[in-house]
Amino acid sequence: PEQIRAVFKKYGKGGIWGVIHVAAYKAVGESTEIPVTYYHNNVSATIFLLQVMDDFDCTRFVYSSSATVYGTPPKVPIPESTRLQADSPYGKSKVMAETIIDDLTHGTPLLYALITIADEKEYSPTHEMASYLLAILQNAFIAPRAHHPSGLIGEDPLGRPGNLLPLLAQMAVGRVKDPVLKVFGNDYPTPDGTCVRDYLHVLDLAEGHLLALDALAPESKLFDNCPTEARYKAYNLGRGQGSSVLQIVEAMRKATGFDYKTEIVGRRRGDVPDLTADPTLAEKELGFKAKQDLETACRDLWNWQTKNPKGYDTESK
């Protein structure tokens, strides 16, 4: 926490224009095993960040959430109007953080003595408390693929990967020695019975967050149609096209040439059938449009993994 405060101290009050908050523990399965760890990291750390932002008059906040906040949605593709009802501790930690941010933007004195909502033109950086907090909740759908096309930057989980694509990549490169991939359930109401997710390339995800930050500029008209005075909106970032577990396995088989063996096992607690985004609102209001397809994401992942078979552990290469 003090490292965060030190960054703000370096630039002084009003010196940091805005914050994009993407840090979190993010494995659904793991969150069911160590829920308190997830709540402490994902919720408590967010509260601390918001408190430090208030101390240093930083009022623009982009929060990267997750489609898991929707639980088992009644409609797919999922619109932002869907109620928040997560099924896993990970998803619940994101709902909690969203709720806190929502309360702040509506002026509820949950974390601070006073949060008032006002137009930007009325904000004075000399106020002891921030006059408003602008927030866009980025429902960055459940499976962002964090690998740059250069192969120089990629996703390197600590320990065994808790998400599907990095696990498949590490199996193909020999870092994970499992002879088979365990598929958690094939009796979901999806085309092949396995869970469906909206896989989004990290470049598209990054662009969506930058567009969100741009939307917080003083000249932005984004909040003119808000139903209340609160400066708070949610946007889904995704391709609008889901892929099942078995489809991802086949896509990675094509990208890597590795002959994956699969074994169907029981459902995993916290999983839901389909979390496919409806990005219509983000396209309309932010100008967001995913440009990368699944084949490109798998290719970039494999490029990273083959160039970095042990991840960032350069001493072992």
UniProtKB/TrEMBL annotation:
<dbReference type="GO" id="GO:0006012">
    <property type="term" value="P:galactose metabolic process"/>
</dbReference>
<comment type="function">
    <text>Mutarotase converts alpha-aldose to the beta-anomer. It is active on D-glucose, L-arabinose, D-xylose, D-galactose, maltose and lactose.</text>
</comment>
<dbReference type="GO" id="GO:0003978">
    <property type="term" value="F:UDP-glucose 4-epimerase activity"/>
</dbReference>
<comment type="pathway">
    <text>Carbohydrate metabolism; galactose metabolism.</text>
</comment>
<protein>
    <recommendedName>
        <fullName>NAD-dependent epimerase/dehydratase domain-containing protein</fullName>
    </recommendedName>
</protein>
<comment type="similarity">
    <text>In the N-terminal section; belongs to the NAD(P)-dependent epimerase/dehydratase family.</text>
</comment>
<dbReference type="Pfam" id="PF01370">
    <property type="entry name" value="Epimerase"/>
</dbReference>
<feature type="domain" description="NAD-dependent epimerase/dehydratase">
    <location>
        <begin position="16"/>
        <end position="216"/>
    </location>
</feature>
<keyword id="KW-0413">Isomerase</keyword>
<dbReference type="InterPro" id="IPR036291">
    <property type="entry name" value="NAD(P)-bd_dom_sf"/>
</dbReference>
<keyword id="KW-0299">Galactose metabolism</keyword>
<dbReference type="InterPro" id="IPR001509">
    <property type="entry name" value="Epimerase_deHydtase"/>
</dbReference>
<comment type="similarity">
    <text>In the C-terminal section; belongs to the aldose epimerase family.</text>
</comment>
<comment type="pathway">
    <text>Carbohydrate metabolism; hexose metabolism.</text>
</comment>
<dbReference type="GO" id="GO:0005829">
    <property type="term" value="C:cytosol"/>
</dbReference>
<keyword id="KW-0520">NAD</keyword>
<keyword id="KW-0119">Carbohydrate metabolism</keyword>
